[in-house]
Amino acid sequence: MLLLTLACGAPDPATLVDELRVLVVQSEPADIRLSDFSSFSEMPPQLPSTPDQITIPTEQETTEPEDPKLNIVIADPLQEGVEVAVWICTNLGDGCLEKDIYQDNPADWIQYYQPQEPELSIPLPLNPLWAGFIGQPTESNEYFLASLVWVLACAPNTCDPVTKLGTGQVDLDAFSDPFSLIEQVPLQQSSLAFRSLYLSSSTTSERLQNPTITPLFDELSLTPGNSLSLEFEVEMTQRSDEAIIYGYTTLGGFGTNDLVNNGLSFFQGTTSLQWFTTEADEGEAQLFSIVDDGLGGIGYWIDEGFVGPANQ
Amino acid sequence: MISILLSSLLYAEEPQPFGTLPSLQYAAPACYPDEALTQGKGASLLFEVLVDTQGEVVALNLLDSSDPAFNSCAVLAMQNYQFTPATDVNGTPVEAQIQYRFNFTPEEAPPLRLTGQVFEAGIRTPLEGILVTAIGPNGIRSTAQSDADGTFSFYGLQSGEWTFLTDETEFLNADVRKEISDSQVISLRFDLVRDQAKTLMQADDTIIVEARRETSEVSSQILDAEEIEYLPGSGGDIVKAVQNLPGIARAPLGIGQLIIRGTAPEDSAFYIDGSPIPDVFHFAGLTTVVSTANITEVLYLPGNFSVQYGRQLGGLVDIRTQDSFPERNSGFVSVDLYQSALFIEQRLNDSLALRISGRRSYADAILNPILNSAGGNFRTPRYYDFQANAAWKSSSGILLDGLFFLSDDRFSFSSMSEDEEEEVVNSAYSKNFQKFRLKLQQPLSNGWEHNAVFLFGPEKQDFAFQVTGEAYEILTAVNFRDEFSRDIGLEQNIGWKFGTDIVAGEYAFKYDVSSYSIGTPEEAELTFIYPSLYAENRWVYNSLEMISGIRGDAYFLEGGTQLFAADPRLASRWSVTDNFTFKAASGLNSQSPEPRELSAENDGNPELVPERSWHNVVGFQQDLRGGAITWGTSVYYNQLYNLVVGREDRFQFFTGPPPVGPFDTEEYSNEGSGRVYGLEGEFRYKDPTKLALVNASFSRSERVGRDGETRLFRYDQPFVVNALYSHLLPKNWRLGSRLRYGAGNPYTPVQNRIYDLNSRNFIPIYAERDSGRLPPFFSLDVRIDKDYVFRTWKLTTYLDIQNVTAQKNVELISWTNDYSEESPLQGNPTFPAFGFKGEW
User: Does B466 touch chain A (CB under 8 A)?
Assistant: First the structure.
């Protein structure tokens, strides 16, 4: 019965973000090559014991690279403020390999932020391990996906490991095993999320591109108990059967975020999300639209809306 | 016929002189024995008669009779004689005792005026000994009594309107008015509606207790079909009533599976006439897969059972099918909210009888159109079953009984493909079996008996998920049990039982549901043979009874796997007094690992050994008030060892909600163990119209995993209390109530969650396994039955209301989509089930 109800156009509670949540981790560019880093030529190859057969790339790009960055979107509907830890973990089964690499300078591995806006854009640090794992330049577009970007967002002074991180104390053991780390933070007022980095040694000119999403509307206000269709223009350079647009809001809700309702079957075109509110909803809302092309690219859109009587 | 008043005897509490003596006002006509009339015989009888102040005969004493054949006619007539009462010297009526001579002369035999028959309504059986009273003009009376054919006759009734009444001793009263004339003989038929409450009260003025059949087990319960058919919550299903017995925990979601003494439903077994069947309940435990009409009794053994049973760690339920010949042809049709059933029993001749029954649920017929009106394609749960039984009994007592029975349950949810041309199954589940059982009972010499049961047929359960996911288990097996036994008797105090129990066949399985499991798909077809031998001795010395036995099981699987187990068992009963029995038992049980767990080609471990349990119990039972009250307690301690652990992340068919992590994902091994201990108490009261059962179970069930840590078992329920009451009221009403209260099942709470931004799904991080517990369960059920009996059939109606207090019991814990909050799933809503059953 639930399935039928949702299919008929009611909002899906899963699209309502009513507490702190990391919503997006996007790398720019969508795929990461070592040559993208300006510091790559200075990087010493480092690798723990595995794997055994590692070949360090010797060829260097001649073009001036633009350093990759990470764009992180965090919804904070309660507006309590947020402190964030961001780190990259390459785990082959025994915890983050970075733990040994950054033993002496952990602050270079686990970064601490206190963003004031939902969107946080930070440089993606070059990980010394990658040189060993990615291997020699190749013309194939295969990706090394074992490095995950982890983001732990907490309301201020809620999560001990993050709060200590803000004071310069880094608990390497805790952060090197995120599945144990989560047991140290409260269920409420925290959000731990991860996303794979698409690492490659490809030398081809073809690269993953993050989709772009552009709103085709101006007004984002809605009276309680009504709905509003939000139309977007989406552009992707790759197409897959898994491409989908997600809608999230801090007030009201969207339809179910699944391929049946929100699948995208085009490279470029328009699509819409239906924003619903209930009679009880009123106030400012943050709205998020995220396009995942299913191949590694992520695009997103953030804006603020308002739910209230029509004359306001 | 001449009646002569011979004399009067003064009689009063305080002797005093009479003014006048009683004088006859009305002499009711008496019947005249046919044979005596034909032979022209007469008779003379002398009565002592007590006449009350109204002139009515209140007591009769036959002092002398020249021919006993006339006695009953004279008594029936004299009961309706009317006198003018005796008076004292002041003219006040007083009681008086007189002697009265009753003479029969054939010349004055009264003419036959009315003849009739009395039958019991519904079952159409002639009733013997029913008194029929005729009340005629001016209130004059006459009485007749039915004979073995139910026939009764009235003679010499005056012309006019008469009312005919039947006695109300066991039946609801019936009256008919008839115009009697001198010119014709009226015929009359009564179909009397039996009042169960009156019947049972009349049967004996002391309490009636059904004889309990003795079994080899010290902890056993035998449920009689008639005893529990009307218990609330069971829907008339006698196997479901087992759920109310001590030692049974309530299954999650109330799906009817049996959690016996802290073991999983998978560890207990269901039998039919001693041979295993795959399942005993349809979906959600709604009803048993065999029609109640085919069942005579249900044997519930929570542990320490006879060596004739084996291959399981927990308890068992053995359904005993009808093995008696029907006395008449009968049948019934029943209809309720979710199913209809039909039963026909035909006695073909004195040695051959046939029974056919079937049942079909129709929730799907109602719900499917509603659910699918919005475009879905649901196949809501539906089931059916069928049984055909033929029994042949020889004059020498050999019974050959064949039973074919099948059961089929299934549901599915599917959708149409994108091109709208193909139906795509989203998820589907089915479970079915078809079995043929042949049973031979053969009495031998010297008290020995030969029993053989042959059971053959396939059984299958199948799960399909989306396009590619599929899992099934198919067992095609032959079970054969051959047993020779001699029970103890008057002449011997030693009983024996020797038997073999063999199951052989092919087991095919496939588990390829990637959404539900990790690891490579598993698939195999394995042939197997599991033979066993058992022997049991029963020895009685005075008040002490000892039962000792041993069972040897072997397990041979294709591929060379060979497992062996020997299970010695000992039980004793000591009747300290006639109504106080002390009992104790100890015994080993073994259970083979699942074929998948032994299959080396499917990540199994062929080095596994049988799982073992060691059952120990002590207790007592006391019968009071001639057995009307029974109470007792049992304390048990069951040790489990060699339990198979590992691969918990693989797909499995669970009888309840599947467990959640953290899982032991390593290779299968026998490193698991556990223990279950508890105390059970039961109180039972039964009289002809009332049945009351109260029982309480306190237990703890623990398991030790590969890591050596002790955890609560996922079906642990520390306390369960059941109270049932059923009361048979006059006019065939019956009122019953059931109260259940028990601890909730353990569950694994979610400690936190991680958001996977690749799939945009939350990954729950669970706390310690089964470290949470659901709130206690409470339910009060009420049932009302009423029988309406017609001339040739009987209609039984019932209203069974479950959870009348609308208690919101938590059955499962689910979570919000982001696992931030628990979202309890409540079950057992107030549910009024109405049904009726027509019997003939």
Answer: no
A129 contacts A98 by C-beta, under 8 angstroms:
yes
Summarize the confidence of residues B668-690 as an average pLDDT.
92
Q: Which two tokens stand for residue A46?
A: 């480092």
Please indicate whether, in this complex, the C-beta atoms of B765 and A22 are within 8 angstroms of each other: no
Contact in structure between B119 and B130 (CB atoms under 8 Å): no
Residue-wise pLDDT tens digits, B413-425: 766 655 566 666 7
Least confident of A249-258, B131-140, B513-522: B513-522
Residue B372 has φ and ψ, to the nearest 5°, of -90, 0
Q: Is the pLDDT of residue B578 over 90?
A: no
Q: How far apart are CA B169 and CA B163, in angstroms?
A: 18
**Spatial distance between the Cα atoms of B245 and B97, rounded to a whole number of angstroms:** 59
Cβ of A191 and B756 within 8 Å? Answer: no
Q: Are B88 and B17 in contact (CB under 8 A)?
A: yes
On the 0-12 / 13-18 / 19+ scale of CB atoms within 10 A, A259 is middle
Subunit contact A21:B818, Cβ cutoff 8 A? yes
Q: Is the pLDDT of residue B15 over 60?
A: no
Indicate the average pLDDT of chain B: 84
Other Cβ atoms within 10 Å of B504 Cβ, number: 15
In this prediction the ipTM stands at: 0.90
Interface of B with A in 356-375 (CB under 8 A): 371, 374-375
Kindly list the residues from chain A whose CB atom is less than 8 angstroms away from the CB atom of residue B374. Answer: 4, 7-8
Contact between B306 and B316 (Cβ < 8 Å): no
Between chain A and chain B, the number of residue pairs with CB atoms below 8 A apart is 60
pTM, full prediction: 0.74
pLDDT digits (tens, 9 = 90+) for A162-191: 999 999 898 888 899 998 899 889 988 999
Contact state of A193 with B754 under an 8 Å Cβ cutoff: yes
Domains and CATH numbers, chain A: 2-17+208-307 (2.60.40.10), 31-200 (no CATH)
Nearest residue to A251 (alpha-carbon basis) of A215, A225, A272, A214 = A225
Q: Which residues of B557-588 are buried (b: 16+ CB within 10 A; e: fewer)?
A: bebebebebebebebbbebeeeeebbbbbbbb
Query: Which domains does chain B possess?
Result: 2-108 (3.30.2420.10), 112-194 (2.60.40.1120), 316-839 (2.40.170.20)
